[in-house]
Amino acid sequence: EAGVAQSPRYKIIEKRQSVAFWCNPISGHATLYWYQQILGQGPKLLIQFQNNGVVDDSQLPKDRFSAERLKGVDSTLKIQPAKLEDSAVYLCASSPDRSYEQYFGPGTRLTVT
Amino acid sequence: AQSVTQPDIHITVSEGASLELRCNYSYGATPYLFWYVQSPGQGLQLLLKYFSGDTLVQGIKGFEAEFKRSQSSFNLRKPSVHWSDAAEYFCAVVPITGFQKLVFGTGTRLLVSP
User: Fold this and answer.
1) Which tens digits make up the pLDDT trace of B45-73?
2) With contacts defined as CB-CB under 8 Å, which chain B residues touch A100?
3) pLDDT tens, residue by residue, A30-88
4) How big is the A-B interface in CB pairs under 8 Å?
5) Integer Cα distance of B8 and A57 in angstroms
6) Chain B contact for A25, CB < 8 A?
7) Under a CB-based contact definition with an 8 Å cutoff, are residues B38 and B90 in contact?
8) Dihedral sign of CA atoms B99, A3, A19, A44 in order
9) Terminal-to-terminal C-alpha distance of chain B
10) What share of chain A is helix, strand, coil (3-state, %, to 5)?
């Protein structure tokens, strides 16, 4: 079974630029999550999708972050414009319906200079 | 306030020695409990989980964890550490009331000395 795929693995941008991350969850997993992991901290949930609907985006800075999950499969997370404090690893995870077990992708390390 | 605490930021263990990583939680009702491991450049991998039942839980890679309700703890243990166990370990919980999202501790970095 293929795992959660993410791209790119690394991205360096200047502040005020925009960036997008892509995630392909495990086939058949209804729930998809985006987390932000700042160096030295545990991952923090940004947004949770159930199929293609948003379940929770209370921690998503909506003035600059946006996310979508087209057709209930792949998802993209966008930052526009980026700030220095957005430097972090962005993790995507997925889980089967009605399960608390989440499967994580390798993450995208974003550096904002 | 509801929280997950991992009091040790770093731990160094000699290869072959035993390991215990501490995790405490502060929730009104016992949440679902998890341990994840994150190797450098990798995503998080689930080691084990506790929902109910036997308080000693076996996981992958030779890890186990013990749930102690009286201490609000869920400590991770391994009897003999291998160099490949060097990684960051995260305790996490899913509250059983309210919005059930995974909440992580700040992590413990394990260093393994020869």
Assistant:
1) 999 999 999 999 999 999 999 999 999 99
2) 32, 34, 49, 51, 94, 100, 102
3) 999 999 999 989 999 999 999 889 999 999 999 999 999 988 899 999 999 999 999 99
4) 48
5) 30
6) no
7) yes
8) positive
9) 40
10) 5, 50, 45
- Tokens standing for residue A23: 């995630």
The one-letter code for the residue type at B26 is S
Token digits of residue A50: 């159930």
Rounded Cα–Cα distance for residues A11 and B36 (Å): 25
The DSSP code for A1 is -
Cα-based distances in Å from B63 to A110, B25, B57, B80, B93: 32, 20, 9, 10, 18
CA distances from A60 to B4, B28, B94 (A): 21, 26, 19
Please name every residue paired with B37 in a beta bridge, in sequence order, or none if there are none. Answer: B45, B89
- Measured CA to CA, the distance from residue A73 to residue A75 in angstroms comes to 7
- The rounded distance, in Å, linking the Cα atoms of B22 and B68 is 12
Give the Cα separation of A107 and B1 in Å (integer).
30
